[in-house]
Amino acid sequence: MASLTQIEVLLPEFRAYAIAICSSSDDAEDLVQDAIERALRTDNRPTILNELRPWMFRVIRNLHYDELRKRRVRREYLAAEKRLSDEAGTSDVARDILIRMAFEKLPPDMREVLCLVDIMGLKYAEAANVMSVANGTIMSRISRARKALLALVEGTDARSEIEKSRR
Fold first, then answer.
1. Whole-prediction pTM
2. Residue 87 has what pLDDT?
């Protein structure tokens, strides 16, 4: 197993790489910490320093792109929600009630994935671990759940997205 000492030796390189791909040093530090945490929790990490180094760079890179994807999806989701509330002319309280009512109409599996990712802020990989499914499954489930929620809020037919989730 790769030891904490090996990770400590490579830490300056991990920080430099994270700073190079992140927009801020705080984000880079968080990214490195998340990557180290992930590495220490994984049983099948490389044991040789020369194999651990590129493996950890890959972990850092993947975590970074997961975060970028999550931010993009949240921006799109919030923009659509804002557009809906602007079009409907509803207040924030009325919009929140409308969204909560629509959320309650969703099937439990859709509510679960929305809760874990959008409400609780878990990363896709963390949600996948909680739900014991693959990362890609979380990504497709969250997409369908968001579309179904949006359809319910807009008052359009959400059945197609709900049906896809049951397959």
1. 0.50
2. 61
